[in-house]
Amino acid sequence: MAEQDNYWLRRKVSRRTTLRGSALAGVAAASYALVGCGDDDDDGGSVATPGIQPTAGASPTVAKQPVPGGSFSFQISSNPPSLDPFTQTSFVTAYNHGLVFSKLFRFKGGTPDVSPADNSMELDLAAALPEQPDPLTYIVKLKPGVKFQNVAPVNGRPLTSADVLYAFDRYKNFDKSVHKSGLAFVDKMEAPDATTVKITTKLPYADFVNYLGGNLGALIAPKEIAESADAATKMVGSGAFILDEFKTGVSLKYKKNPDYFDKPYPYFDDLTALIVTDQAKRVADFSSKQVNLTWLFLPTERDQLKKERADAKLEETQGIGGYIYLRTDRAPFNDRRVRQAISMALNRKALRDATTKGEGIPDQLYHVGFPFARKVEALKGAKYWEYNLAEAKKLLAAAIGEGKTIDTTWDHADAAIYTQTYVDQATLLQADLKQLGINIKDQVAPYAQYISTTYQGQYEGMGHSPRAIPYWLDYVTERFTMKPARGRINLSYVNDTALEVLLDKQRGQFKLEERLQTVKQIEDHISEEQYEIYFSTDTRTFFWDKDIENYRPTAWFPYTHLMKTWRNKA
Amino acid sequence: MAATQAASQRVAMPELRRRRSATSRLWRTAKGKPIGSVAAVVCIILIIVAVGADAIAPQAADRVDAVRNPRLLAPSFGHPFGTDNLFRDIFTRIVIGSRISLGIGFTAVAMGTVIGTVLGMVSGFFGGKTDLFVSRAMDVVLGFPPLVLAIFFLAIFMTTKGYKLENFLLLSLSIGVIIAPTTARIVRGSVLSIRNLQYIEAATSVGNTSVRIMWRHVLPNVVAPIIVIASIQIGNAILAEAALSFLGLGINDAAHPSWGAMLQETRGVWLEAWWLSVIPGAAISVAVLAFNLFGDALRDVLDPRLRQSS
After folding, report:
1. Which of A115, A187, A522, A534 is most buried, judged by most C-beta within 10 A?
2. Nearest CB to B71 within list A353, A416, A446
3. pTM greater than the 0.80 cutoff
């Protein structure tokens, strides 16, 4: 393509801005450290000192000669509910997807030279960053010679632009897809030739690269598996590792993909993901050196493991922050005074003291950790983060009448997936709400049930989940949009015309500075509306064997770059 | 005169014996079985605590009060069992928790005893292929580790979590199922020993149906071993409930704790607060020990043959 036709090169400043808008929603988000990923979860950016927001600092890189071969084992905290990328938002599933499937782009994070919360992207299947002949058109060239893994039913056939189109079409249009709203920005897709994908968007979309490099709704899975009866239990992609065996509730075993297009990766011959739902067992297994990498430890377990495995490498990251979502489409939670009262009735300090030794980020909206994120006290609705039961009772009385109470439900997962701390948070917060005059019926579900019902918006009163770490700025749209349908994670059923206008506006702003002004307006709006009620974020620590080289946890998916990791046998 | 006195003594003696047996037999039994007697007292206290938990507990079990219940407060006068990591009074939770622990224990034993008694009677009374089928089925159930079987059962049937009647009954039934084979074997053995006795033959010869004979003539004669085995099984059922709750398969919630779940929920802070492991653990141990010792004593009193056979 001629240089003058190349939008990304032709408009160097804009391109940089764009990549910062999506990637700096990355590089910027470097220090960002919310939680989890895609659905609901977990790990975060690097935090050197408990309670301090993560910095963008990268570890010094030590040049070492990679050593191919060997095995590596790590733990996941739950059985993947299904391995089908089209119908899942589970972070456990997504962790495993990252080993087998490729995307157009992928996170740079995952090696020591990149900060854990740096969400900037590098090339995966794409041969280069997209060309943009006009603001609505993106042309992505695929790397030549990419093949699916040499496993039935694809048997090593070439991966072409038709496969990319198929996957995106299925994410958008398959009945059971849970990613429809994520790709709502796409108007049409074409495949001019076997290695070119042309995507036309409905409007200029500043997060194009970050969304398609993310972990949900962007994995290129072949039709042969997607439409087979084995979609829930098999994965065949073009990634670095081949799924060799999936023992439900026990483990997933992977072997090296010798035909992987991104040479010289992977280094390990095989990987094992051990499904260990019990936190104490995860600690015990790593203490006794039965596993090479373990994670998701709160301060208590962290301190225990530090003593028991003083030899291990570790990195503390900003961890899980919980939030409450409510049915704002119906009474009583359609009255914002009720939501504001709930927020003011939560004793967040007591919550931190009780569950995380007082560590963590105290008060936050969803953009905590981003360099541009304002502290809660700078938001218009800052007072709703203050624990003030008397004021909360006044607000509630004004909304529902003096002396009246609310009976409602609170849905959440059990302790097996998110640890006992998550359930303890529910217990404490429900007690706070009882004092306010909201009587909760606690409804606990196993993870597989929770992720396919509650986390898809199927609940009656209130729900409670760990926070997701957004890796693209437009994450807010999925949280709060009703256009064209309820966003994938608009769990509060927010339907706010004024907010939609702001969401639309920021999505098309390629200049980061301008976009952030809009984002600030969104933050102020949401802080007053209290559509979701946030509480503190804890810290989580990763531990891994000292002879494991070139590994670093990431804020989103800590196993994406295991292909670049090796064991130093010297 | 002497003859008259002797006659009056002979007349009075049966009355004396009857009065003695009515008033002092319990005392004599208690003196003869001091450990069992203490256990019985403990069992009665536990039952009273469970029944009157709301009146006895000083707070609500789910009361989170950072002022009144400072976090991780060691046992003290104000909080005899201390407080937990979520600002709750442990004494309150132990008292309220006795409801689930004992409630499930008794309900499970009731279910297991009914199932086991029916199967044991049918098996022993009819004999032949029926006996063969029921006995092998019991062997199959006994072939599984009891807790694994209960977990298996709950994994299939308990589709929701939380404190509700449906889950209470399912949890009880899962424990009842692992109790039933032992009861069935003992009842079968007792039925086998009486089914050929003359009164059974007589009942048969006058045209009674099998069901009526079992209900009216067999069951009353195997009640003693049933009571004995049931009393012994209560301890096992309480232990099983605690284990299942510890594994996250219980029915507790914040307002309705169970002892096993209390252990599970506080595992992360045991190193900081010893009482969070010791006190619920001691409650389980005391309850299990009391019911086991009481059951042993009851066995000796009601059916010494069981002791010999065991």
Report:
1. A115
2. A353
3. no
B67: nearest Cα among A421, A406, A537, A431: A431
pLDDT in tens, A459-506: 999 999 987 667 778 888 888 999 888 888 899 999 999 999 999 999
| Cα–Cα distance for residue pair B264/B38, rounded to 1 Å | 30
Q: Are A427 and B64 within 8 A, CB to CB?
A: yes
Which positions ≥6 away from B207 have C-beta within 8 Å?
none
pLDDT digits (tens, 9 = 90+) for A149-169: 999 999 999 999 999 999 999
Alpha helices in A131-181 (DSSP H): 161-173
A126 phi-psi bin (left φ>0, alpha ψ -120 to 50, beta other): beta
Confidence (pLDDT) at A529: 96
Of B66, B253, B265, the CB nearest to A350: B66
Q: Distance between CA A321 and CA A468 in Å, rounded?
A: 8
Of A182, A210, A213, A212, which is closest to residue A24 (Cα–Cα)?
A210
Q: With contact defined as beta carbons under 8 Å apart, do B39 and B299 qualify?
A: no
Do the chains contact at B85 and A424, CB–CB below 8 Å? Answer: yes
Alpha-carbon distance B271 to nearest alpha carbon in chain A (angstroms) = 9
Residue whose C-alpha is closest to residue A414's, from A77, A180, A133 = A77
Is A279 in contact with B71 (Cβ distance < 8 A)? no
Residue pointed to by tokens 């003196």: B31
ipTM for this prediction: 0.71
Cα B86 from Cα B278, distance rounded (Å): 17
> How far apart are the C-alpha atoms of A344 and A460, rounded to whole Å?
22
Chain B residues with CB within 8 Å of chain A CB = 62-64, 66, 71, 85-87, 160-162, 248, 253-254, 264-265, 267-269, 271-272
CB pairs under 8 A between A and B: 58
Q: Tell me the one-letter amino acid at A104.
A: L
Q: Which of B71, B160, B267 sits opposite A354 (nearest CB)?
A: B71
pLDDT at A1: 37
Distance CA B69, CA B87 (A): 5
Exposed/middle/buried for residue B147 (C-beta within 10 Å: 0-12, 13-18, 19+): middle
Residues A425, A351 contacting (CB under 8 angstroms): yes
